[in-house]
Amino acid sequence: MARSIPPSLPRLRLLGRPGSINVRKLLWTLAELELDFVHEPQWGDPPSNLLSPEFRALNPNGLVPVLLDGDAILWESNTICRYLAARSGRRDLLPDDPRARAEVERWMDWQATDLNAAWNHAFMALVRRHPDFADPAAIRRSVDAWNARMILLDRRLAETGAFAAGAGFTLADIVLVLSVHRWRQTPIDRPDLPSLAGYFERLSARPAVAGLMVPGLP
Ligand SMILES: N[C@@H](CCC(=O)N[C@@H](CS)C(=O)NCC(=O)O)C(=O)O
User: Fold this and answer.
1) What angle do CA 58, 61, 67 make, to 5 degrees?
2) 12-87 maps to CATH 3.40.30.10
3) Minimal-distance CA residue to ligand 1 atom 5
């Protein structure tokens, strides 16, 4: 449920189609923070509007999401998650303590680098059906790498018995659970990973993620 924010704060604008996993990270974060915002879902749908000078002036990469906060222009989804949590003073989602914070940021960076790199080829081939990603050997390597990363995350969750960064829900879980949803929605052979499955079921029940992890929206 969107709540009003104090009138002294400028209204947030989120640009990006909700089919984008990176846009959904922000929709989830904004809902956890109960922040009022305007969503402009037309950006990236069609993709050609990301090439427009108007959009490129906001993000020279031509990618969504973009967040506008007054005269601040932000891009890079995980950075924006951190910005929003810090802006709301939510130290439970992003701790101040350097060691606890590094634990959260480690998993966020891992998602954006190692994990994304592992799934990219398989996802582009098997879900997006992109002709540039049709090599069966490369798809197999990508699936194996993706599953290996999910096994690693499953072991981590077995260790903590709760969340990625430890005992409490943090920003790391937002970016990871959406990635787990993508893994579950992609037509590949997957190992049985009980800790990961339990984690996914628990976090899918959070009200803030309602409608963001549905079949057909990997
Ligand atoms: N590292 C960037 C990646 C952003 C990104 O790759 N966005 C994709 C959607 S998930 C995009 O805009 N693709 C072009 C398009 O949708 O047309 C981030 O995390 O924000």
Assistant:
1) 40
2) yes
3) 63
